[in-house]
UniProtKB/TrEMBL annotation:
GO terms for molecular function: deaminase activity. Belongs to the RutC family. This is RidA family protein. It comes from the Bacteria. The lineage of its organism: Bacteria, Pseudomonadati, Pseudomonadota, Alphaproteobacteria, Rhodobacterales. One of its GO terms (cellular component) is cytosol. Transmembrane segments: none annotated.
Length: 135
């Protein structure tokens, strides 16, 4: 049993898309933040699934970073990032956007080609980061 002091804490920010199902944008527990998959969906719910890959990737990255910031983290706190893309040919474009957004931070990362993603998106990103636990 988890003590009340050590309870997982849900993260919710209006700077990224609200969950579309039964899940949280992220959970903080024992100094780690587990960020749910972020799609190219604006905070207002607008889906950019018909936009070019670079625009979708930039928004998914921005959503992931907004959720991370809401949990008290920054790019330097990222431990592991998993990126799901529908076309591995987009890897170089993604890597350039990723490097620009993360700067000197170089977390462990996997880029996984997949046949399809929810809503027809071209990219989805989830992550794990180390953050200072907040009461």
């Amino acid at each position: 049993m988890v003590s009340a002091v050590n309870q997982p804490r849900a993260i919710r920010t209006d700077l990224a898309a609200a969950p579309g199902g039964h899940y949280s944008q992220a959970i903080v527990h024992n100094g780690l933040v587990w960020i749910s998959g972020q799609l190219p969906i604006r905070a207002n719910g607008e889906k950019l699934v018909d936009a070019p890959f670079e625009e979708q990737a930039a928004l998914a990255l921005d959503n992931m970073l907004a959720v991370l910031a809401s949990a008290g983290g920054a790019p330097a706190d990222l431990c592991k990032v998993t990126v799901y893309i529908r076309d591995i040919g987009n890897w170089p474009a993604f890597d350039a956007l990723y490097a620009a957004r993360l700067g000197a931070a170089r977390p462990a990362r996997s880029v996984v080609p997949v046949p399809e993603l929810h809503f027809g998106a071209l990219i989805e990103i989830d992550a794990v980061a180390a953050v200072v636990a907040q009461p």
